[in-house]
Amino acid sequence: xxxxxxxxxxxxxxxxxxxxxxxxxxxxxxxxxxxxxxxxxxxxxxxxxxxxxxxxxxxxxxxxxxxxxxxxxxxxxxxxxxxxxxxxxxxxxxxxxxxxxxxxxxxxxxxxxxxxxxxxxxxxxxxxxxxxxxxxxxxxxxxxxxxxxxxxxxxxxxxxxxxxxxxxxxxxxxxxxxxxxxxxxxxxxxxxxxxxxxxxxxxxxxxxxxxxxxxxxxxxxxxxxxxxxxxxxxxxxxxxxxxxxxxxxxxxxxxxxxxxxxxxxxxxxxxxxxxxxxxxxxxxxxxxxxxxxxxxxxxxxxxxxxxxxxxxxxxxxxxxxxxxxxxxxxxxxxxxxxxxxxxxxxxxxxxxxxxxxxxxxxxxxxxxxxxxxxxxxxxxxxxxxxxxxxxxxxxxxxxxxxxxxxxxxxxxxxxxxxxxxxxxxxxxxxxxxxxxxxxxxxxxxxxxxxxxxxxxxxxxxxxxxxxxxxxxxxxxxxxxxxxxxxxxxxxxxxxxxxxxxxxxxxxxxxxxxxxxxxxxxxxxxxxxxxxxxxxxxxxxxxxxxxxxxxxxxxxxxxxxxxxxxxxxxxxxxxxxxxxxxxxxxxxxxxxxxxxxxxxxxxxxxxxxxxxxxxxxxxxxxxxxxxxxxxxxxxxxxxxxxxxxxxxxxxxxxxxxxxxxxxxxxxxxxxxx
Length: 672
Ligand code: RUQ
Ligand code: CUA
Prior knowledge:
Elements: H1 6-11, H2 18-30, H3 42-48, E1 58-63, E2 69-75, E3 79-85, E4 106-107, E5 110-111, E6 120-125, E7 128-138, E8 143-148, E9 153-159, E10 166-172, E11 178-183, H4 201-204, E12 207-214, E13 221-229, E14 233-239, E15 247-253, H5 262-265, E16 271-278, H6 279-287, E17 292-304, E18 309-322, E19 330-336, E20 339-344, E21 350-355, E22 360-365, H7 366-374, E23 378-382, E24 385-388, H8 390-393, E25 394-399, E26 405-410, E27 415-420, E28 425-430, E29 436-441, E30 446-450, E31 463-468, E32 484-490, E33 497-504, E34 511-515, E35 545-549, E36 552-560, E37 563-565, E38 568-573, E39 577-584, E40 593-597, E41 605-607, E42 612-618, E43 623-628, E44 641-647, E45 656-658
This protein binds (dicuprio-$l^{3}-sulfanyl)-sulfanyl-copper and dinuclear copper ion.
(dicuprio-$l^{3}-sulfanyl)-sulfanyl-copper binds at residues 1, 118-119, 167, 340, 406-407, 447-448, 509.
């Protein structure tokens, strides 16, 4: 996210007059925009109303920011349907706590249970959303994930070497050939000595762009190659499409290559760049053997829905193309003032750069850019990369659009919609003549926006959702931290109309939305128990067992409405490491069972029908430990429980386990 704090304001030497900005800030801080309270009238309310029992028309996938998760809403109701854990552990689902899911969060730094998740991108075929997968980026420990939209679960995570602050990610090509990931923080390459003075930034720091290939049938990710680029901050990106298919566009700031006080030092130049990358050309160089193998370390984690287990592999090599050697891969297009959003219209002809400190929005033409390259209309070079003359690539500028432009989406009807963080508004403008057509306030300080399919060739532009950084007075107060907020606008007419506010999970950044029909009918309802190949599965109560291996005890158990089997376990000794391998025998939709045991220091398990999940539990001291189902699964859910007896270390109580067995009435004493 971008924040505009006071120290920046002091140092802005930008085209916007400081006075105008101060006014905007004051306005923003002190007055509520007109109509703030009355924006939603009954007509608007009816538009967002989805009657009880009726389905929403769209899925909205919203990044969780510092929650590391993705949330799924229905639109237009704004109803929260699910939170999908991706980069952060989630005790609710046991994600990152169960033995099966722990490897998903493995990295070259070991187990990393949290991240900052900003951007999402749905897979596409021919530039249209195909509803198969959604990709997610992790900023902090650079990773890209793939979530399977038949299960709404994270299927794969790949770490990115030579990267830091993986922000310009995970943007995809129109047939999902590649997911890209550009480093926001340039750093010394992983195989170089990173132990260098920070002040040697200009000599030692580089920016890497990763091109992750995606398997056509199975979606499997692999780092096909990386481009080694100058040490700038790659911020955001979008691929070309249609006429510009084969190209990628990355916004970059800090072309000053500052290593301290970036708020001042990275805002010196009048223009930074949008870097155009010819990835088809890069592929040719790769085929011609121009890549250099670099020794690195990164994790590749895959979740297998047959054994319901993730595996993590550490990979040790990546192929790098150096863009300063290979002249015709990259071109710099000057873009005013620290560009953030980099968005390509549905035809692929227009590239919108949002300079967050600029007073205008430049729109570049792909055709003109191609001509400029052919004519060598350059203004010198930037570290060996040709700099195209600004005017030569420019389609035109949107004048006086607002303050603090960040992101743009499109409606496929020739219009673009840009968010303005500082002036808190969404502005609709026409791509052809760059005229502002409409503006609506946001409450407040909007970052990203989303139109269903708004960055594809075929937007489905009924709604626009604004994701705001600050809620202020919109909801009931909840202590020092207030809910972040999304706002839904009807954009089917000429004027945008606010119809709903709804709170979000974590801090939302980019989001994606798609007609529900593209995904709805593909949902997996349960996992087939016959196909469960987890090594600890019990496919029926007859095969459950408790096995001691030294101080490890494996409990292969089952659950079905409304009991566990076994539900009485004895012979565990203090100090034992107990592994509960719980198989849910249900073969019906929406019947998960939970598993929790007293004193567990991690989380519960939430086991889907047909699945096996494992909880590791240390028997700390002797005593009686109830376990129970946490998910209200039937009228007899409260009966779904059991006991585990822990004897002192060295005890000779033998391992025993049973279901439905009680001692004869006369024998009421416990055996020793
Ligand atoms: S970035 S607004 Cu990742 Cu714009 Cu959040
Ligand atoms: Cu199973 Cu409650």
